[in-house]
Design brief:
The chain is mostly beta strands. It is elongated. The chain starts with 29 loop residues before the first strand and ends in an 11-residue tail after the last strand. Bound molecules: zinc ion. The site of zinc ion (ZN) has 8 residues, from loops.
Amino acid sequence: MQHGFIANQHRFPPRESNKQQAFKEFEASELFCPQCNRAVPVRKRLLLVLPEGDKYEYLCAFCATSVGTKLVRGANDQMHIII
Ligand SMILES: [Zn+2]
């Protein structure tokens, strides 16, 4: 059975400032990126959901190279992503 959810894409002018809030999870502010050869701002991305916690990957904000991972114990179970 399919849920007929279709997100109609209206052509909004790029005025919404809400979009920036999607990336407010900057915990580790800067990490060293071997590609850029310098410390770079990173993006946190959920990589794996393990029984002992969630594994996050840190990606370089410029070239998207993985610059590190981090295991977050299930402290905040606000988000439950069931795959
Ligand atoms: Zn980089």
